[in-house]
Amino acid sequence: MPDLKITIGSRDFDVFCQPGEEHFLRTAATLLDAEASLLIGQIGRMPDIRMLLMAGLMIADKTAAMEDQLRDLRARLAEAEAQVAQAQTLLEEAQANPGTVEVPVEVRVEVPVVPEDLLDRLEQLAEDAEALADRVEDAAP
């Protein structure tokens, strides 16, 4: 089992993981470290367990918010797909039977827009992942 040293909130921890999961553990540790560092900057020094708990809760809160946004976007996408399917059916019927199918004059299809804050967060996550990959690459023998 690989033994890794990770840093969270300026504190080092020795952890174990399954072979091949080192990258995922380092990525998770980087996310946790970012939240812990933010906490320490705002509150100051605190016991390890409290720092880890609070940082974990902050990440869980962000994850829950992103899951809510994703659920909303999926619902809006399903609605748009249903509208497109309905328009496609009308078009096929009109092409198969010219002049016999009444096509609505105005067919409105809304395309969902990804919220700007979600795009910003995804961009930040991508930057964090790239920074982590650079750190891992620099640390590799």
| Percentage beta strand | 5-15%
- N- and C-termini, Cα separation: 19 Å
Based on CA atoms alone, the radius of gyration comes out at: 24 Å
Structural class: mainly alpha
- The strand count comes to 2
Q: Return the domain count.
A: 1
Strand order of the largest sheet: 1-2
Spell the H/E element sequence.
Answer: EEHHH
Helix content: 55-70%
Main beta-sheet strand count, sense and barrel state: 2 strands, antiparallel
Coiled coil: 63-139
Protein name: Cell division protein ZapA
InterPro entries: Cell_div_ZapA-like, Cell_div_ZapA-like_sf
Keywords: Cell cycle, Cell division, Coiled coil
List the helices and strands and how they pair.
Blueprint: E1 3-8, E2 11-16, H1 22-43, H2 48-96, H3 116-139
Antiparallel strand pairs: 1-2
Helix pairs in contact: 1-2, 1-3
Organism: Paenirhodobacter populi
GO biological process, one term: cell division
InterPro entries: Cell_div_ZapA-like (IPR007838), Cell_div_ZapA-like_sf (IPR036192)
